[in-house]
């Protein structure tokens, strides 16, 4: 049996007497793409924060390639090869696109290698035309892509994305979906998202949260056709 890239075992998170996440088990293999969905308050965002080290679970264990990372600081988790993009863009407004990506690439690499990574990353995300623009002057969608670029530039084996399509135009959503499919050729991703159109574009396996527990985990077509999922979450969007 191969060791999963990421594994959550019996993870529970209580706030007072309320269990926001309850006895959740999840395994992610190398270069797998997994989408986490569910209605507001279902527990998916809390679970994401546990995976990224923002929260220490009340019970349970999180492992990355077999190593216990339960409650480890986000920078420790990042050093192991996990790239994290939160919902709110976390970028350097006072730097150019090239400089911001360069700082991320230079954390582990030599200057020469870092420059190569910056060029390759900007080409992949089609950011070269705005390479010398200040990040603070960019539109929301562009800022989201710059942050994804800074995560990619650190060459992680696993990327955790929290609602990457939030606030984007339809055209930006299409491009972001294409980008995620491209990234997934080499790297594993966990994507927390509630935009069902976006999920349809990118998803293979979907894990559905409801009331802190996993309701169903299956291929995207089976999940979208499941009556229970429609009842708790999709509603008319599924038709």
UniProtKB/TrEMBL annotation:
Any one GO CC term of the record: plasma membrane
User: Entry's SMART domains?
Assistant: AAA
Key words of the record: ATP-binding, Nucleotide-binding, Transport
GO MF terms here are: ATP binding; ATP hydrolysis activity
Q: Name one Pfam family in it.
A: ABC_tran
| Location of the ABC transporter domain | 6-236
Which CDD domains does the UniProt entry name for this protein? ABC_Mj1267_LivG_branched
Source organism, top-level taxon: Bacteria
Entry's InterPro entries?
AAA+_ATPase, ABC_AA/LPS_Transport, ABC_transporter-like_ATP-bd, P-loop_NTPase
Q: What is this protein called?
A: ATP-binding cassette domain-containing protein
Question: What taxonomic classification does the UniProt entry list for its organism?
Answer: Bacteria, Pseudomonadati, Pseudomonadota, Alphaproteobacteria, Acetobacterales
């Amino acid at each position: 049996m191969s060791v999963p890239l990421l594994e959550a075992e019996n993870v529970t998170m209580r706030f007072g007497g309320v269990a926001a996440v309850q006895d959740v088990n999840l395994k992610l293999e190398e270069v797998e793409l997994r989408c986490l969905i569910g209605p507001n308050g279902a527990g998916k965002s809390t679970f994401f924060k546990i995976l990224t080290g923002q929260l220490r679970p009340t019970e349970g264990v999180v492992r990355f390639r077999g190593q216990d990372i339960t409650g480890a600081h986000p920078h420790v988790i990042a050093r192991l090869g996990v790239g994290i993009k939160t919902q709110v863009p976390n970028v350097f407004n006072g730097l150019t696109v090239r400089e911001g990506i360069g700082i991320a690439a230079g954390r582990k690499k030599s200057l020469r290698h870092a420059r190569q990574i910056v060029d390759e990353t900007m080409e992949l995300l089609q950011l070269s035309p705005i390479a010398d623009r200040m990040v603070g002057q960019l539109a929301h969608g562009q800022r989201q892509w710059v942050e994804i670029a800074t995560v990619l530039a650190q060459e992680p084996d696993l990327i955790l994305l929290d609602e990457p399509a939030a606030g984007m135009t339809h055209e930006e959503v299409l491009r972001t979906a294409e980008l995620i499919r491209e990234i997934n050729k080499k790297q594993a991703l966990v994507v927390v998202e509630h935009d069902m159109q976006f999920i349809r574009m990118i998803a293979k396996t979907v894990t559905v949260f409801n009331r802190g527990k996993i309701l169903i985990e299956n291929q995207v077509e089976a999940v979208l056709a499941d009556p229970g999922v429609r009842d708790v979450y999709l509603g008319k969007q599924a038709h």
